[in-house]
Design brief:
The protein has 111 residues and is an alpha+beta fold. The protein contains two helices and five strands; from the N terminus they run ααβββββ. The protein has a domain of 77 residues: Nucleic acid-binding proteins (OB fold (Dihydrolipoamide Acetyltransferase, E2P), Beta Barrel). A five-stranded mixed β-barrel has the order 1-2-3-5-4. A hairpin with a 3-residue loop joins strand 2 and strand 3. The radius of gyration is 21 Å and the shape is elongated.
């Protein structure tokens, strides 16, 4: 095969891969609020809110997040979060013994 045919084959494979990616891509975390996340177990989303109270910071973090609604958020890592910090939380809703809580995959402190 000459270089021109090989280049065209590579270009075609690349374009097919890019088109496949865009056709099958699903945004996993969408901007939402606490109320919408807690409606159903397993809902995932990004919530922006203020920390109302920090329950513990070590070895994992638990805090109460509020954005008009409130929820207990469990984050499996140590943090330095404080009361009244604004955070963006990538979370999934979970039910534990009839309590609705959020399990955070990632917490980003704003400011």
């Amino acid at each position: 095969m000459d270089d021109k045919k090989l280049s065209l084959i590579c270009l075609a494979i690349t374009l097919i891969g890019i088109m496949g990616f865009f056709l099958t891509y699903r945004n996993e975390f969408e901007e939402t609020n606490i109320g919408a996340l807690l409606e159903k177990e397993g809902n995932e989303g990004v919530v922006f809110g203020r920390i109302e109270y920090v329950i513990k910071n070590y070895p994992s973090t638990m805090f109460i997040l509020t954005d008009g609604n409130s929820a207990i958020v469990y984050y499996p890592k140590e943090t330095d979060l404080n009361k009244n910090d604004f955070v963006k939380v990538y979370a999934k809703s979970e039910y534990h013994s009839d309590k609705k809580e959020l399990y955070a995959y990632k917490v980003i402190k704003d400011g």
